[in-house]
Amino acid sequence: MATTEPADELSTLLVAIQRLVRRRLRHGLEQPPLRGAQVELLRLVADRPGLRVSEAAGELCLAGNSVSTLVNQLAAQGLLRREADPADRRAALLYATDAAVERIGTWRRRRLELMEDLVRALPGQERQALAQALPALRSLAQGLRDLPEEE
Questions:
Q1: Which of 6, 50, 75, 126 could connect to 122 by a Cys-Cys bridge, CB 3.0–4.6 Å?
Q2: Inter-axis angle of helices 98-121 and 124-146, nearest 10
Q3: Residue 51, SS3?
Q4: What b-and-e string marks burial along 44-59, b requiring 16 or more CB atoms within 10 Å of the CB?
């Protein structure tokens, strides 16, 4: 049996954990599920009202036209609204609607409850190891943010 490099295993596990969390949280939802990128954009705009599309694209590491498509989809669902930027009428500022804020709040509460239950069920040593790994995981996330964009 071949050994897996820690970096490869970490990458695989992070993707699997994210996918499984989304799948668990989608179960029992009353509203139609949102795609991962839609949720990420809504969370970002809910946390930073008045964000420009270009700023959201940079923060999410997505192309501007991809974010514009997401904005159009979410606006059509009544979850995002656009307002013209008073400083530059060509630019749009993004705001989460009350429905979106409520939906994101519910999603965050459910996600926290799920993860708390799972972490609580781990043996004490594994909980401690997970807590000790958090600074390294934050550093990895920052390192990914700091990488230059590929053209």
A1: 126
A2: 140
A3: strand
A4: bbbeeeebbbebbbeb
Angle at the Cα of 13 from the Cα atoms of 69 and 145, rounded to 5 degrees: 50
Could you tell me the CA-to-CA distances from 79 to 54, 66, 91 in Å, in that order?
Answer: 19, 17, 19
Task: Decide: 71 and 41 in contact? Cβ < 8 Å.
Answer: yes
Burial degree of 140 (CB within 10 A; 0-12, 13-18, 19+)? middle
Residue pLDDT, tens place only, 69-94: 999 999 999 999 999 888 888 888 99
> Coil, strand or helix: which one is 50?
coil
pTM higher than the cut 0.85: no
Structure tokens at 44: 């970002």
| Chain center to CA of 40 | 3
**Hey, what's the torsion of the CAs at 130, 104, 61, 72, to 10 degrees?**
160
Render pLDDT for 11-24 as a digit per residue (tens, 0 to 9).
999 999 988 988 88
Report residue 132 CA to chain centroid gap.
23
